[in-house]
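dumping this here so i dont lose it
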């Protein structure tokens, strides 16, 4: 069955590739014709129409970057010329282009603009469809707050329309969002409300099966397995009656979950396999359900103790989620792989996948913020208690003085009855004394009352400040969460683009990769490609690139560089290193419009082309060198003195030069960025320097590469010490013949 799924996916890929190749020649001819026409157009409206046509043609030919460029031009002109139809067409193309690139966070921004456009022209049907797409995109990306916002807006519209089918579908969507947030009680409430509406509208049969299934899932996560089993059975009966094989497969998967909770692992795997085969037989492209079923099979094998099969299915589940860009399922698959590797005592892989999982589920900052607010509230409460104690103490003083005065009055009154004649004069003076004491007490009372009012006023002010501070902290938390999410998303994109260590090892056999970004994402990057030769064999092209800046700005440059290298090497089949650098330089200038903006961003790099059949290595460099160590001697091949990108008035045309090196057994090669040599540290707080780096590489070149990576990390940490922070991204690549 496992092979069937792989063959099915491969079959879909072959059909799609064949269709694409068949249509590509016609599309390229169309693009050339449109570009030729556009080059002679001077009228802005004609330019706008042709830009839209070109954008759609590039999109059809699977060139989303070019489609985005022309669609943006059409969008700008549509705003200038106030053309609603062309604005709509450009927005649609931009949305589709970013979806084609798998950049869902960008695509959803254009979906939101489309929704605003439909609302402006009162296109209710397309508005509701787009709101649904926005909610689905945010839900699949795990941005549940935004998903809920758009689903609730859509629910309001459906209720105003009186569209029962639409109301039920949105209620199910909202219930799923709460379920993904593990708020199962609220999730169940929406599913039950949907079921109540369905029972009042007997014609909505299709939605009934899906709602039964959702209710069963909510009960399942609430550990109420009897109720879950009941609703799963009802869903299966309903979907079987409708004959929808795709929905039947989902229902069978749910029945497998019940068998697994009861410990019937063999029966559970049988159910899951039946569901998977059903999806394969109907050539379903529902990769979300496919991933869930694969993960369920893996978890069942894990519970049954068959760790090898558990790992196999979890890896395939992750592969499906990654290729379909379903981030919520990628997170679930990461977690499953962590548990599987832990069970296998493979803690290295368990740690790597736990790191990927934690990047997506980072809630540390939220917890810290909650703690800070709690501490501030505690301090506020303590201050209020202390002020209350001071007020009570003052009131006790007043009561004590009043009691003392009454006792004195009674004493003198008693003595006066016995010695009225004698004490008449004394009583007169005591009266005057008591009168003064009363005035004094009255003044003290008034002062204390004013003080009490002042304290209460301060308390109210503190409460207001506390509320304002709490709101400010909440806003700061939201902004910080958005920044962290963006950085994590950028990290996942960059990690997906960079070659994995095992890919380098597959073509270079013995190799070293020491990559230590300064921030979450890196301006340094490396790239690997293979190009088949006409007489058999391959040329291997790889490079270590030092982009302008680091962090998010640097990461953007790495995306530009990777994309251009892919186009130059794979699409245009250019394999000579000096020519690759010339084309890359022109590509950066064009992409960043440097002739117009005078932007000077770019990159330095060392690029190698290995031909094992000819036993040669070709090297060209933009500032960065190639180091070779052979027969215990170190040789340095210098790059040209200018970098990639930027407008250099002294060198309007940059000529890069190629070095040809015959490969000899035992030779060790290194290429690197300037991050290691520019690191400040040591006793004098100076830069590490290129000479010291070459000497250190020479001292460790005889070691296995795994040991060299460890030595490089130790040397960088020792040089940096405790006083210096990492200055720049660090990248060192080595390989041995």
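and the seq i came up w/
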């Amino acid at each position: 069955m496992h092979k069937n799924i792989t063959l099915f996916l491969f079959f879909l890929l072959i059909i799609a590739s064949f269709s694409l190749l068949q249509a590509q020649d016609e599309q390229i001819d169309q693009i050339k014709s449109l570009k030729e026409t556009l080059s002679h157009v001077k009228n802005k409206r004609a330019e706008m129409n042709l830009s839209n046509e070109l954008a759609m043609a590039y999109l059809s030919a699977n060139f989303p970057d070019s489609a985005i460029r022309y669609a943006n031009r059409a969008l700008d002109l549509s705003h200038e010329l106030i053309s609603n139809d062309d604005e709509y067409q450009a927005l649609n193309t931009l949305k589709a282009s970013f979806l084609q690139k798998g950049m869902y966070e960008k695509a959803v921004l254009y979906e939101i603009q489309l929704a605003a456009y439909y609302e402006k022209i009162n296109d209710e049907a397309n508005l509701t469809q787009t709101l649904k797409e926005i909610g689905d995109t945010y839900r699949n990306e795990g941005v549940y707050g935004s998903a809920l916002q758009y689903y609730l807006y859509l629910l309001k519209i459906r209720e105003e329309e009186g569209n029962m089918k639409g109301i039920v579908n949105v209620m199910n969507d909202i219930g799923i969002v709460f379920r993904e947030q593990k708020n199962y009680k609220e999730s169940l409430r929406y599913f039950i409300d949907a079921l109540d509406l369905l029972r009042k509208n007997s014609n909505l049969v299709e939605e009934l099966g899906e709602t039964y299934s959702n209710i069963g899932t909510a009960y399942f996560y609430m550990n109420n397995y009897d109720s879950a089993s009941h609703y799963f059975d009802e869903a299966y009966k309903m979907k079987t009656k409708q004959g929808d094989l795709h929905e039947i497969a989902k229902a069978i998967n749910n029945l497998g979950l019940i068998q697994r909770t009861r410990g019937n692992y063999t029966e559970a795997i049988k159910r899951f396999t039946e569901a998977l085969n059903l999806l394969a037989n109907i050539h379903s492209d529902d990769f979300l359900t496919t991933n869930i079923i694969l993960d369920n099979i893996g978890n069942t094998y894990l519970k049954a103790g068959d760790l090898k099969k558990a790992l196999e299915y979890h890896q395939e589940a992750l592969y499906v989620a990654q290729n379909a860009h379903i981030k919520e399922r990628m997170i679930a698959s990461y977690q499953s792989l962590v548990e599987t590797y832990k069970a296998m005592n493979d803690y290295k892989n368990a740690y790597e996948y736990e790191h990927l999982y934690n990047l997506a589920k980072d809630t540390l900052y939220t917890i810290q913020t909650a703690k800070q607010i709690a501490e501030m509230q505690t301090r506020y409460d303590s201050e209020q208690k202390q002020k209350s104690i001071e007020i009570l103490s003052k009131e006790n003083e007043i009561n004590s003085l009043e009691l003392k005065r009454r006792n004195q009055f009674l004493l003198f009154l008693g003595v006066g009855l016995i010695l009225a004649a004698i004490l008449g004069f004394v009583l007169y003076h005591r009266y005057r004394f008591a009168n003064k004491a009363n005035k004094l007490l009255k003044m003290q009372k008034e002062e204390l009352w004013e003080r009490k009012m002042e304290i209460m006023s301060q308390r109210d002010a503190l409460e207001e400040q506390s509320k304002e501070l709490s709101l400010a902290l909440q806003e700061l938390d939201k902004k910080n969460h958005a920044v962290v999410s963006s950085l994590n998303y950028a990290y996942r994109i960059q990690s997906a683009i960079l070659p994995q260590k095992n890919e380098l090892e597959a073509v270079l056999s013995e190799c070293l990769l020491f990559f230590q970004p300064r921030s979450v994402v890196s301006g340094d990057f490396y790239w690997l490609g293979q190009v088949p030769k006409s007489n058999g064999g391959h040329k291997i092209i790889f490079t270590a690139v030092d982009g302008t800046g680091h962090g998010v700005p640097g990461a953007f440059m790495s995306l530009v560089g990777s994309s251009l290298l892919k186009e130059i090497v794979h699409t245009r089949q250019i394999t000579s290193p000096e020519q690759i650098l010339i084309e890359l330089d022109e590509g950066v200038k064009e992409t960043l419009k440097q002739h117009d903006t005078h932007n000077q961003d770019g990159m330095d790099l060392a690029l190698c082309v290995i031909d094992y059949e000819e036993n040669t290595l070709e090297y060209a460099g933009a500032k960065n060198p190639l180091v070779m160590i052979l027969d215990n001697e170190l040789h340095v091949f210098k790059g040209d003195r200018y970098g990639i990108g930027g407008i250099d008035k002294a060198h309007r045309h940059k000529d890069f030069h190629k070095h040809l090196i015959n490969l000899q057994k035992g030779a060790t090669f290194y290429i690197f960025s300037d991050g290691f040599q520019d690191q400040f540290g040591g006793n004098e707080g100076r830069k590490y320097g290129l000479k010291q780096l070459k000497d250190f590489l020479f001292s460790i070149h005889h070691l296995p590469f795994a040991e060299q990576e460890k030595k490089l990390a130790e040397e960088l940490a020792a040089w940096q010490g405790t006083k210096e922070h990492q200055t720049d991204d660090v990248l060192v690549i080595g390989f041995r013949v």
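Residues 1-21, 363-393 have pLDDT under 50 and may be disordered.
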